Each structure stands twice: as C-alpha cells, then as structure tokens.
Amino acid sequence: MTAHSPTRRTVLTTGVAVAGAAAGTVVLAACGGSDSGTSGSSQNTGPAPAGTTVAALNDVPVGQAKSVTVDGEPAILARPTDTTAACFSAVCPHQGGTVAPEGGVLKCPLHGSEFDTLTGALEKGPAETGLTPIPVKVEGQNVVTA
Ligand code: FES
After folding, report:
1. For residues 116 and 123, is the Cβ–Cβ distance under 8 A?
2. Residues 7-50: pLDDT tens digits?
3. Candidates 110, 115, 131, 132: which one to mutate for ligand 1, based on the most atoms within 8 Å of Cβ?
4. Domain that holds residue 132
5. How many domains does the chain have?
6. How far apart are CA 20 and CA 27, in angstroms?
7. Which site in 11, 12, 25, 145 is 20 to 30 Å from 70, CA atoms measured?
8. Is position 136 within any domain?
C-alpha cells in the first residue's frame, strides 16, 4: 500500500518535467522559425523575409485597410492610393491587443486606442505610439514585403 504513494509522486513529477520540456521546445521552435528567415544576414529588419506576398493589391479598396497576416503575425494592409500600399503590425503598442479596421480607424478592442487607417499613426490613446510599420512594395498585382 505505501509503495503506491512514492510511485504516484514519481509519475506526477515526471509528468511535470515532460510538460516543462515540451513548453521549452515550443518556445525554442518559435525562436528558430524567426531566426531561419534572417539567417545569412546580420541585420533583422522586419518580421518577414523580403518578397513574401502579403495580399493582392485589389483585395484592399482604395482609401481603406484590411487585416492580414505577415509571417504568421497579425498585420494591417492599407491602400492609400490606387497604386500604393502600406502595412503595419496589428499588435497594439499599448498592451498587445490585435488592432483591426473599425469605423474608419484602426481600433484596439482591449482599451480603445485608435490609429490612422492609412498611416498607422496614433489618433487616440491609451497607446502612446503608432503602429509599427512593416516595409512593403507593390509588385505586379501583389503587395510583398520589402
Ligand atoms: S492593448 Fe490596445 S489599447 Fe490597450
């Protein structure tokens, strides 16, 4: 009977250790993924390798913006004019909420910060800065990371 307690404890301890190792693996894998895109370069200039397609330019109406994903991260793609595009991280600089187009601005659902649809500039706090730009360019019919 008493032999069960140490055995059970051992199993639980082992389970925790395995869970911890698995969590560590996930973190390391995420870091490795980011690094692999910039290997060979000593300068990390953006979240995605240059030339990654963000979206078709015509997916975004002129003067508006839409939510997209760049290298697995939430982003905003704006189309200031017929032939130009601008892109920003959708991660709110306040506390990391995901900003999205709403009512003519880019709005954070967590605490209500607002950003300019076409420039990502701060319009209303509590955030203290605008959205982080992601360099993009128009290539043919597509918007790609620059
Ligand atoms: S996280 Fe966006 S306003 Fe607080």
Report:
1. yes
2. 444 444 444 444 434 443 333 333 333 333 334 334 444 557 88
3. 110
4. 56-145
5. 1
6. 11
7. 25
8. yes
